Amino acid sequence: MSNVIATMSDPRVVMPTPHLLQREIALSSAKRKVVCAGRRFGKTIMAARMAVGGDEYNGFTHGLLDSKRVLISSTSQDQSDIFWDYITDWLVPLFNHPAFYKNEVKRIVRVGQGEIHVKTGHNPDALRGGGVDLLILDECAYLDANAWAKVGAPMLADTDGDAVFISTPKRRNWFFELFTHAQAPENTGWQAWHATTLQNPFLKPEALQRLMQDMTREDYQQEILAEFLEGQGAVFRHIDECATLQPKAPYPGQFVFGVDWAMTNDSTVIIVLDKQTRQMVVYDRFNGIDWALQRGRLMTLYQQWRPEVIIAEENSIGSPNIEALQREGLPVKPFMTTAASKPPLIESLVLAFERGEIVILNDTVLKGELMAFERKVGATGRSQYSAPEGMHDDMVIALALAWSACTAPVFQMEWI
User: Fold this and answer.
1) What average pLDDT score do residues 104-116 get?
2) CB of 62 closer than 8 Å to CB of 51
3) What's the rounded Cα separation, in Å, for the pair 117 and 74?
4) Is the CB of residue 276 less than 8 Å from the CB of residue 297?
5) DSSP labels for 221-269?
6) Which of 57, 250, 293, 408 is disulfide-compatible with 304, CB 3.0–4.6 A?
């Protein structure tokens, strides 16, 4: 990357010329950018350039030279040092400027009102501090999920700031969910990019060819092709083959609902299955609204599809909602999720995918939850099924409940 360009903010500062995809990401107006990329794609240098900023971004300014406060967090001191070295090397022409300040110990550089602070994020609490305009989480698949959920996100509240998440995958952990979230069309302000190492035009073809010989197949898939590999305890297979449908408008037939309740951190999900064709026809997913409105949305779906039965999770918050809906005359049956009842519920759905008996919507969020869902073996030897730590399984549970209603005769259902 020998070519350089000068920023219009200060013509003395020069930075490497970005390749086309790096520039596309930097120019995007999305408030939340999620970049899943292979090693040596140029993730670090791209993020460092965005942190420095400048007029070259045609209005989508980001960083230091635009008087923005930037926090960069990476996984280790060595990786943080790479960011620091890039940034300070580029800014050498400003070292004698009266508005320039640099603190090597704290890894802080300022130009006027603009600031870049480079930190190690292995411990999320170490990132706590004042508000910032731009948060960059580098190799965030290897960071604790709380680096964003509990520390990073609140830091952007005062400034309505931007966040950039950049990483090579680490199987299907919280970064996978973040990437899936950014792909969903309803999540406005989010945008996702997938890039392989092979898309870096500055790398030599012969070096790229040697990677295939030097790495295992799985390592090459994850580290070079940036693929989200199945987790060690992955449960569902053949998801893409079964996910071929688009949502349908109401039509005559026999239908069943599966409902997983939530209020804040998780989402309430209602999934509608056609009992005869074993096809998913539509779903509703929402959070942060009161129980009366949630029941109202379920009632609306009921009036559209007239299901034979609605299987709803009963645990804690579910029970009063179920009782309220039953008083309204809806055919709601409770399911109490326990260590004993959950495995057979999930395993029935697993077999449906294995046998190709179910067809679901080609929906990013649903597929993401199914792909990440995992199995662990407890101390007693019993299978335990759940989403990985920091992720969600609301849609998986709702789908499993709806599937149980499709396949089990009403008189045999243990939850009646």
Assistant:
1) 91
2) yes
3) 11
4) no
5) IIIIS---PPPTTB----HHHHEEE------SS-EEEEEE--SSSS-EE
6) 250
**Dihedral angle of Cα 344, 349, 354, 356, to the nearest 10 degrees:** 140
d(CA 38, CA 2): 22
Beta pairing class for 374-377 and 383-386: antiparallel
Which residue(s) pair with 118 in the sheet? 72
Task: Kindly state the DSSP code that residue 388 receives in the 8-state scheme.
Answer: P
Domains of the chain, with CATH numbers?
4-224 (3.40.50.300), 239-412 (3.30.420.240)
CB 170 within 8 A of CB 141: yes
Strand partners, 119: 73
What's the pTM?
A: 0.64
DSSP of 103-158: ETTTTEEEETTEEEEEEE-SSGGGG--S--SEEEEETGGGS-THIIIIIIHHHTTT
Q: What pLDDT, on a 0 to 100 scale, did the predictor assign at position 208?
A: 80
How is residue 220 annotated by DSSP? I
Around Cβ 375, how many Cβ atoms within 10 Å?
A: 17
Which candidate, 400, 391, 369, 392, places its Cα nearest to that of 273? Answer: 400
Measured N-to-C along each axis, helices 43-52 and 20-27 cross at an angle, to the nearest 10 degrees, of 40
Torsional class of 316: left (φ above 0), alpha (ψ -120 to 50), beta (otherwise): left
Q: Which residue has the tokens 């240098």?
A: 45
Q: Comparing C-alpha atoms, which of 404, 371, 81 is closest to residue 271?
A: 404
Chain segment 136-194, per-residue pLDDT in tens: 999 888 887 778 877 888 888 888 999 999 999 887 778 888 898 898 887 889 999 99
Instruction: Give counts: helices (H), strands (E), the chain.
Output: 14, 19
42: left (phi over 0), alpha (psi -120 to 50) or beta: left
CA distance 210 to 206: 6
